[in-house]
Write a structure and sequence with these properties.
Blueprint lengths: L1 E2 L2 E2 L2 H16 L9 E5 L4 H12 L3 E4 L6 H11 L3 E4 L4 H10 L3 E4 L3 H4 L7 H5 L10 E7 L7 E6 H14 L7 E4 L6 H14 L2 E4 L5 H10 L4 E4 L1 H12 L3 H12 L3 E4 L6 H11 L4 E6 L3 E5 L13 E2 L4 E5 L12 E6 L6 E2 L3 H6 L1 E2 L2 E11 L2 E7 L4 E4 L2 E4 H9 L4 E11 L3 E10 L6 H9 L10 E4 L13 H6 L6 H7 L5 E2 L2
Parallel strand pairs: 3-4, 3-5, 5-6, 9-10, 9-11, 11-12, 12-13, 25-26
Antiparallel strand pairs: 1-2, 7-8, 8-18, 13-14, 14-15, 16-17, 17-20, 19-20, 20-21, 22-23, 24-25, 26-27
Helix pairs in contact: 1-2, 3-4, 7-8, 9-10, 9-11, 10-12
Bound molecules: malonyl-coenzyme A (MLC) and adenosine monophosphate.
């Protein structure tokens, strides 16, 4: 396990995480599934905290490093953690909220002072840690939905094991693998697919605290990696960076990338143009796969064998899937239907939301809300059933949550938020706003929202309209709102009202 300027062997990781478990237990014998929320940049402290929480019998709640204090406070109120752990770099964002709620606060484990190089404390090595059964909760990841605010997706140790084992099997992970991690660690993609599989396999994980295109290319060129996994926006950024490089750099970077054994894309639709360009540059046909926080990974193209552009392959080992119509009946082969998933990787519940948990399943099958079709023996994702779920840069955003927040601004009478197709981000968050008074400044509205919402939820375009397009029932018609932001939107715009403000940051 390496991170800038530091590394841990597996032996050191075990020692440091046992020490962390004892610190969290603070004399208790078992955390008894208490939530431990933690905020740290991707790095060794993050991994030690995760393993510490698990060994102490707690449920790990990773917080998003990009979130502003109100979003973090929401998670604290919802998860009700017994402990909050934060890295000094990010502590100011969460410590006041933890302390004002009377939650025990701990700084992230200081590995340089007491962890990696320090001799293990005899007490820590010998003192018993709880036996944690596999059916106990391991992880809670917050995800946006169509109802209300973000929900905690609870997975047990057995679920996490199943999610990891399925990928280790499908992608033939071994202890000789070496993967570069550039994804945020508040999603399954980074936590399970990259870090989790590496830890499970005893492989090397080279952790970078954030994505930087130049650093990634230089790391490829430095050699020694076998695996890379990222979202389509990252591949698009890497392509742009390669295009801007000198011919000597291009040659070295491409040669470095060619040495890897597998490159994977997922979390959002991979444009065929990106797949083709990446293949030209690196010789790798990206393996596209489909997943979701609630299920881990569902479908993937083969490790060996043809990978169809625009397709997401077939179910992973241990995953059962079916395509159904609105009534839950299996669709005819070749017809589109909603993906439903069943199997040991599927989550246990939405935290303290029994009704939403029940509604998310049909006869034991998890209803993903994604529509797909089987085409030449491999599935193709056609889209989502809800227009109110936006995927931007592979981050899921609830349009309703952004609308709720914007409506709290005194200058906003009403608004509608949509995802507009975008070549780099997949979708772009856009807001049509009915101002309460004249002269509402879209840029100022975005700045106001920045203190309240995660950066990726902020509307990148704000358009002032005198009224929102509605159907005969008075319901806002989102497709018409979306057309307001599309290049040929001028005709749609005149259906509603002339814009008075249009900012495209
Ligand atoms: C950052 N910004 C975004 C954004 N990320 N805007 C829209 N969508 C996003 N996802 C904003 C920044 O706040 C900033 O705004 C501007 O874009 C430029 O910032 P940046 O520094 O250039 O962006 P960066 O921080 O580099 O982030 C881009 C990114 C990141 C693509 C690296 O978004 C990312 O890591 N995405 C991956 C998310 C992920 O892991 N998803 C997996 C979900 S699990 P401003 O206004 O300040 O200029 C899942 C299941 C599965 O989906 O199948 O895996
Ligand atoms: P999240 O809820 O953040 O875990 O995101 C899961 C969602 O991302 C899925 O429900 C899909 O809508 C989308 N998704 C993941 N992988 C893909 C893919 N390969 N192609 C299209 N959409 C995807």
């Amino acid at each position: 396990m390496t991170a800038p300027g530091a590394s841990l062997t597996y032996g050191q990781l075990v020692e440091a995480s046992r020490r962390e478990a004892h610190r969290l237990l603070d004399g208790a014998s078992d955390l008894q599934d208490a939530r431990v929320a933690f905020l740290a940049p991707p790095g060794l402290e993050w991994v030690v905290t995760l393993w510490g929480v698990w060994q102490a019998g707690g449920m790990a709640v990773p917080l998003a490093a990009s979130h502003p204090p109100p979003e973090l406070a929401y998670v604290l109120d919802d998860a009700e953690p017994a402990v909050v752990v934060a890295h000094p770099e990010l502590e100011a964002r969460v410590r006041p909220a933890a302390e004002s709620r009377g939650i025990r606060f701990l700084p992230a484990p200081n590995l340089s002072a007491s962890g990696a190089d320090a001799p293990p404390a005899a007490l820590d090595r010998e003192a018993a840690l709880p036996d944690v059964a596999l059916d106990r909760p391991a992880l809670m990841i917050y995800t946006s939905g169509t109802t209300g605010r973000a929900k905690g997706v609870v997975t047990t140790h057995a679920n996490v094991d199943a999610q990891i084992e399925s990928l280790v099997d499908a992608w033939a992970w071994t202890r000789d693998d070496r993967i570069l991690l550039v994804l945020p660690l508040h999603h399954v993609h980074g936590i399970v697919n990259v870090l989790g599989c590496a830890l499970w396999s005893g492989a090397l994980c080279d952790i970078h605290p954030r994505f930087d295109a130049l650093e990634v290319w230089q790391r490829f060129a430095a050699g020694g990696l076998t695996l890379f996994m990222a979202v389509p926006t990252i591949y698009a950024r890497l392509i742009a960076s390669w295009d801007a490089a000198s011919s000597a750099e291009r040659e070295a970077w491409s040669a470095g990338a060619r040495q890897l054994r597998l490159m994977v894309s997922g979390s959002a639709a991979l444009p065929v143009s990106v797949l083709e360009r990446w293949e030209d540059i690196t010789g790798h046909r990206l393996l596209e796969r489909y997943g979701m926080t609630e299920i881990g990974m569902g479908l993937g193209n083969p490790l060996a064998g043809p990978r169809r552009p625009g397709h997401v392959g077939v179910p992973f080992p241990g995953v059962e899937m079916r395509l159904v119509d609105e009534d839950g009946a299996a669709v005819e082969p070749g017809r589109p239907g909603e993906i439903e998933i069943r199997g040991p990787s599927v989550f246990r519940e939405y935290w303290r939301r029994p009704n939403e948990t029940v509604a998310a399943f049909r006869d034991g099958w998890f209803r993903t809300g994604d529509v797909a079709v089987l085409d030449h023996g491999s599935y193709r994702i056609l889209g989502r059933r809800s227009v109110d779920i936006i995927k931007t840069g592979a981050e899921k955003v609830s349009a309703l949550e952004v609308e709720e927040t914007l409506r709290q601004h005194p200058g906003v009478l009403d608004c509608a938020v949509v995802g507009v197709p975008d070549p780099d981000w997949g979708e772009r968050v856009c807001a049509a706003v009915v101002p309460r008074t004249r002269g509402l400044d879209g840029e100022a509205l975005k700045e106001w929202a920045r203190d309240r919402l995660a950066p990726y939820k902020l509307p990148r375009s704000v358009l002032a309209v005198s009224a929102l397009p509605r159907n005969a029932m008075g319901k806002v018609t989102k497709p018409a709102v979306r057309r307001l932001f599309e290049p040929e939107g001028s005709t749609a715009r005149s259906e509603t009202a002339p814009p008075s403000t249009h900012t495209t940051p």
